[in-house]
Amino acid sequence: MSTQISTYDVFLSYSLTEGQTADLVGRALTEAGLSVVSQLKAPATADEEEPLWQILAESDALVAIIDPQRTLPSAIGVEVGAAMAWHKPVYVVHTEIGNITLPSHLGSIQAYPISRIDDVVQSLKRQLKPLPEEQQFVLRSVYAKLGIPMDKLLGEPVFIEKLARDFNQQCGTNTSGERLAQELVRLQKTDSLPHF
Known about the structure:
The chain is of the alpha/beta class. It is built from 8 helices and 5 strands.
């Protein structure tokens, strides 16, 4: 029996202790028209672990909720790392009043206090908005000329840099490789890319 995995705009990553904050964040994202799923509220399936990774992979962005006073749960660290490796937008929301310093392994992710959830929502909406149709055409063309399968392209920064360089040269833009990788993933979900 084949299981259909739904796609979501945002995967919400949090621990049980952050459930109340996760409810607030989830509500803000949903009210903004974004579809949200979390590891604690994922659709029930026969094999729980594999579909969770599929749900994360199919989600367009990740929002992690952390308590800076506690050690970062390893599951959240793994989910954030996977999202970063898949070139998804990653946001951290925390419960402190001001700015915090994230653990070094979270790289250059910006952390937002819960009081700035509207900034996260607006940034997500911009990030998840598809490129204009004419730029999508150029992106598909550049991708086809590269002739590199998606899994290999996403795993090699040098290919993403070449994709961005060629795309920006043709469009006269300065779009980041990460943004183009996100758009390629979105186009792949709609089966709008050539298969290699």
